Structure prediction request, 279 residues.
Amino acid sequence: MFGPLIVIYLFLAGAGCGTFVAAVYLSQRARSSAALRRSLGRVALPSLVVSCGMVAVGAACLMLDLGRPELALDVLANPAGSVLSVGAWALVAFMAAVAALLTCNLRVLGLGRGAVLAVKALGCASALVVMVYSGLFLSTIWTLPLLASPLVPVLFTCSSLSCGAAVMLVLPLLCDADPQPLFARLSRIDGALLALEAVVLTAFMVAAAGDVLSSAAAQRLLTGDMAPAFWGALAAVGIAAPFALEAALRRPDARACACIGVLVLIGGFFLRYCLCTAP
Prediction:
């Protein structure tokens, strides 16, 4: 139903927003941990750049898919008119917050501690809105019965937060940082998110398979031509494998952490691919 540009937008916007939330969470935890402060000192600026870049590229993909940039201006001109309008303004607020923190990190702009906390709060709030709105919008498209479920926003939110943690696990390898403090704070949270995503996805598929309007799309994922993507890339590679690794490993090195992160990101992409292509 949806083209590849929409899938890429949904993935990049969700993962980018999740990365920002994960980075802010770690920055708060770092106040009581010298080891985490040292690791975060190497990955904090790259995490903001990656977060901003992912959301920006995702938004560009959305604009390319629209084909008419003026439609985006129409959506922004009516901020309370629809779920899309709320999501568009949340994207604007998020990019503004990330840009402000980037300029602070580069010492171009000086903000007091209270102002920085306010910007972080604005960024996290707008990031959560972006995560929820994309799934909420898809669930309101009545011509796509598979997506007409309140579980879709829950899936997208869990996946986005998990992908954000995954990006933070990949960065130590790229930035020559100690991954242990990051893994210690993120592995249990990400494991819980993956477990919740698996439970919600199971409930979603059971409901879809039992509904006469969405059963054909569900069977396409479960036993049809998209079964390899659903069971292989999403369920096995993207959820089960990283969950098992996070539960089994105690002190993984940077390469192992990056491997876990990449697996989670693969799952995040294929979740959106499966849900957007099957209908």
Observations:
- The CA atoms of residues 29 and 36 lie 8 Å apart.
